Amino acid sequence: MDWFSSVFGVGSGGSLAQQQQPYEATEAGESTSPGPPSPNPRRRKRNKRHNEGAHDNNEDNNDDNSGRDEGFEPESVSRHINFGINLSQYGNASDDEISNINSSTEGSDEDEAKDDDDEGDKDEDEVDALNTTLDSVDINDDADAAQRVYINDAPERPHVQLEPDHWRDMTWDPREKKFYYKNGGDNAGVGVPKADGYNIVNPRDANVKVSLVLNLSRDIMLASYEGEIAHLNETLDKLDIPATVEGVEEHLFGAQSRFVQTMARRLKKEPRDIHKFLATVYFSAELGLPTKRLEQHPNIKFDEYMDTEALNSFWRDIANIGKGGVEPTYLWQDVEESLNKDCRDLFLAVGRNNYKLRIALDDDKVHFQFSSLSVINDRNYLCGLSPQQHVKANRRGFTIDSAVSAATGFPLCFRARREGFSSAKNYEAMLRYMFQYKFSVAGAAMVALNNIIFCSDRGYWQVGIILFILQYGGSVFGTLMRNNWVPFTYDQKHPGWRRVIKTKYGRNIFLAFGRWCTNMLKIMAFRSGRGSVSLAMDSDGDEEAPQLWELCFKNNGDAKWYQSNSLTPTQRHLKAFQSIDEIVTSTEEQRDIKHHLSMFDVTMLTCQDKDFSWAMMRKFAFTSTSSEAAVRMAAPYLPQDEEIRSQYEKILKYSSMENHLSDADDGMSMGSEEGETPIDASFVTEVIISMRAGRTQESLVCSKREAKRILDAMESLSSSKLSTMLVALGMKSDRAANQITDIDKRKKLKIWTNSIMNCISAEDYKFPYEKLLNAKELQLMLEARAGDAITNGTLPGDNPNPTTKALRIEALQCIDDDPAFQQSATERDPSHNSVMNSVLTGVVKKGFLQPMSQDEKKELRLGHQNEPKYLVEYYNDSKNGRVPGISLCDIKRPGMAMHHEKAYVRSSADGIGIEYSDDGSEMGDFDLLKSHTIECKCRAQAGGHGSLRQAKTIQRKVVNKLEPSARVYVDGRGEAAYLEISSSDQKLMEELIPKSSERIQILHHAYTYGLNKTVFLVGSPEGRLLYGLIVTFEDELLTAYGEVLEYLYKSGLHLFYSDNQSDLPLGLIENIIRNDVTLKQKYTVDDLVMSALICREMRPGSSSRLKYPIPACDMLVPHEYALWNASKGGSDTVTRFTWNCLPVLPIRTPQSVMIARYIMIYGVLHHRLIQAVTGTKKLDTNTDTIQTVRERANKRLPFHKSLGALRKFHLLKASDQSAEEHRDVQADFQRTPAPTYNSEEKDKQFQVDHSVLGQSTGSTPVGKGRGTGNARKFLRKSENYSVIKHRNNNCTGFAFRLYKQNSNGEFEFDRNHSCDLCKRRNTSTMCSGCKRILCFDVDRREKIIDSLKGNDGDRLREEYPALSGLSADDAPAYYTEVGVVNDRRFYMGMSCWHLAHPNHFCSPCNEDDAQLASVIESGELANSPQMNE
Known about the structure:
By secondary structure, this protein is α+β, with helices and mostly antiparallel strands. The protein has 54 helices and 33 strands.
């Protein structure tokens, strides 16, 4: 196969990487292709593994194996392919020029064949020359420059006369979003850029722009949904099809319908027989049972359906239609043609120009385990179908390529893969068929696909189909697999020219733009920050447009109020305050509380915490955690003459961090002259740079004088200043501050100063690296000073990449001696200072959530779960008068709040307590309410600060300070103790709140909300409060805190709030990441820059113009990925419908399984049409979302009910009965009545209803009795394992208790069973559908976690989809909030049965609730018995 066929997906088929096989060499060293063999005998195997590995994530990469199975010959490769790309015009083109092939699509396939005959053999020489040139192409592009092997690579190539309209002469038009020719040419040509031929956009580029949207993808899909429904209604009117269930069914399945006429004509049967056959097939699919079992079931009336013998005969006739060679087509081809014509008439009629149609391209896999011997013996055995090997299921079968509306799920076109057809060729035929009315009109072909966006998953995009769509005016959109022409890749050892995106770092997106045809193709690589990378493309991308990031709402209902224009600012503000279920207030109290909350002088940014919007809002801002780090880390570097020093001292004194601030005269008394530079870290840095850069005797004398000053002042320097000076020398901050004593600090400094004092010649000076820094510090310093030089290989010295301590010291000394790496003190960046570095380090480290251990995660999760319990107990204690000075009327849980004047000050308190003022307790006066912030802490650690033992010790101290009457509640009843304290009582604050960070945290809450009181609640892991501290802050302290934060903001944080991206301190951010091990393992500079750009757009007043507060969001992804998530479900739903309700075939042949699948697709078409025409509620774009519309339709008519309606329609047609008669006589299920009541045998009274579990099959399940391990292995190898797994995953049965009858005739629980999931014994709950024993109302989360960690972890994740996406130390929570009814929250327990039945739960009946409310309001039920009761 030549290179062109492999790139464009023609010939024998196969995906791109499958066709690009390397040149294989024989054992004798002779190449099977022209040219010498590869010098590396292992290269062929390596390339083969590389090509196979590129498809690991693709579900089915065998789509195009036509001609490769037994009994088939590969299709010959023609020079002219379907979409008109001609090779002959290129002659001896180079490999760069061959990727830009001009397209010509005016003629038909017959014309192209005629042209080939006319040309004869005159182009054979040109083709031979072209193939010779292509031999030098490195097909896999996976080797390094030194490893690539070029075959027949001549030093000089023949000159190629390029056409005047070459694609390199094109210019991008930003208005039209297209390329055009400067010389006026009109032949765009096909240009496929190489992996290194794209314009890569990095997050740090100056022209990078970012914008933020909320739920935009779902709004786009809703608009498409509305347009398609309107277009369908217009089409039904034009075709005179009644928009009713009867009208749709008559059009699709009536006696005159295409489908029934086709079946009757080819099978030579009456339409009545066809209807009876279809009724039986749909009945079997509806229940998922074979016809024989339905016929023999005692509780099913089967008289009107086709019996087993007649049905088998029917399927035999279907299997043989067209196989004798007498008829021109097979039956499945005619049925496929009928289906596609019906879909085209209904959904793709002429005149659709008012909205963009999004078409999802996918495939539907049909499993059929054919044998190779059957294919060899019977050339017509496969009925013209292309055999496939489905990789993921490891099954043979066939593939049906599908085109489905992405918004509504309307089926548009289906085409089975024929023999000799690749996926690209098959998709091309589909598109030509769907829009035949445009392709057949002269001059309209070039815009045939205009205003249509084709969406597809990564496994189905090939170069050929992309070029075809773009060439005819369409747009391509979707995810991509790793491929040689994609400029990005990940987790590959041999990337070639592609850029490798490392998966371990933070959330980011990488962009590349390249010209394909006349379109600008945008290729994206999105790194989720959770260890995964996803590739995608969009042909509608604009290089100059900002990159959109989208926040997706967690709850669909939030979109209604957020998008509403009728909501006032006050109403929006109140959305950020959530009520607690257990706290109930009266209507009058709620009115006053809402008014009080609306008076808060803060901007509420989010509606709740711990979501994606909250996580982004806390970055690059002073929060309750980052403010403490910034204050503490900047204190040692605070200049002594700053006006803020006095205010700073107040904050440090309040938080017991005075030791971090040096004394006022520290290091100044030793100055020899007035006005000399104070001795601090900056002074040390100046001396270091002077010694490195000067290298003169004068600089040495000056440095000796400065070193003498430091040496003389050594004993008077404080511990914090000594630490900062060591950090300036290169020591890590945590080591300098906490891991060495003050004596050792002074020794280290003396070593450095003595190295200067004892130096004779400046040229011979050596910095004492080995005596001051450890190995890790040497590595960090080397990366900070010469990181780019190491990457580029330009590091001075003999070793370009030093890895040992000695080599790093040698490299650093070479850098000291190299003038190119030096910078004098006077040339240093004036923006660089220690305060800025400290502020940004504290904010960045605390703003980006750090990886935690499993114990830390468990403790954090426990704290979040207990917060509502603490608040409720605090509220009840206040109501009982046990909280001094506080009489609560309500507690609200707020989202993130922003200070009314300072956008960089934000707080996320655990609660807002609303209390009655001291002036009175009567409601109705807004001035009588006041509020305070609440901070909750759960103590669960084993020891140290924050431990449960320490909390109980503090509780006893609090109790000792209470009045004797109050101690009774704590000592005698075990209730919480409450104490009022003032922030001015430093000794008491330090005793009761030992952690400085927690004292700063409660102060931060009060300052942000403009309040003077915070309640600090501490509880146990069991959810009980231990004690509460009511802390009152003085106005002076609050004012000082605000001024300190403002000073720190102006000292460096303001750079992140500038509209100019060039103001971002990239060098400082890079140093912060390099010097912090945790940040370095998780984030890069690009990640922080992208986060800063997103956070800038989330601020109030940004160009994104968001409304606040933002509802809870469960996703923050680029807009293209959010749009893909919203649009990919169309084709997936069709596949899921057909797989969930597969008919059980008695005769399995290639044609019978294809006919059965097309019958089910017809059922999907009927289902979607019925949902569209029976929708009673009009679509409201202001309140509805695409999810609510889909859920409403599926709730109103699920697929199995649609099949039931279709079954009854065919029975009606088969029996010629009226609808009324049919409903009267129809009774599919019959139940045996219960025995007559007998008071003497009441304990033995029971009802017989075998329809619950069904009739036994009479066969033993495969693998039973072999032991747990052997049975599990045997089951997975058997054919019915997949059937069992499919039944379990899609079970919708109900749970019931198992009883057994003892010898006395009494019923008792049958506990002689173990749970199939958690292995709990004495389980008596069973599922009626999948027949599994499962716990129903028992919390088994911890046991499931233990099982996931053990040997059964892989098996559980495979058998239970609800556990597949979880880590080894996590499992779904047991308690789950399921809804709010009448302002009351309801919870349910998620036990083993619920985890094993993810598809069981239906959506709430909100529409019926609204209808019932209107009926009640009208008074129609006023006299009903239920209302009177």
